[in-house]
Design brief:
The protein is of the alpha+beta class and 138 residues long. Helix content is 40%, strand content 16%. It has one domain: 2-Layer Sandwich (Alpha-Beta Plaits), CATH 3.30.70. A four-stranded antiparallel β-sheet has the order 2-3-1-4. Bound molecules: 2'-deoxyadenosine-5'-diphosphate and magnesium ion (MG).
Amino acid sequence: MELTFANLKPDCVERNLTGKVIDFIESKGFEIIKMQKMRLSKIQAEEFYKDHVGKPFYKGLIEMMTSGPCIPMVLKKKHAVEEFRKIIGNTDPEKAEDGTLRHLYGTTVRRNVIHGSDCESSALREITFFFSFVDVIH
Ligand code: DAT
Ligand code: MG
């Protein structure tokens, strides 16, 4: 079993898609280990997305991620990181494969509903960014 980090982005919460997205995630066999609803400050969003500093979409990304509450969570499944990336789909909803979350609910690259860690080391950093006392070796 492995843990990954997911975040229901403000566009997801604002459009009342929380229940549908959580249902989809659970239907794919992920167990929700931790979950909270919170609004990121600008400083927190900048720290979380620091790898993207300087990219043309960075400012818009920070604006979107601080525009309203998000729902960060820790998920558990066998090969969770890779499996979760598969079910969210391509960053751009227009390119996301049929049946993926971003294909189903995403509107634009910026408003693509959900974040998922891209590798195990990102998952560890992102989980501990949002949650204390996670039993990381679950
Ligand atoms: P992913 O979220 O699929 O890991 P990423 O790490 O490359 O994608 O980028 C992080 C977020 O930044 C992405 O979910 C949405 C935003 N983003 C990426 N590329 C973008 C672009 N070309 N235009 C607007 N927003 C973009
Ligand atoms: Mg990424």
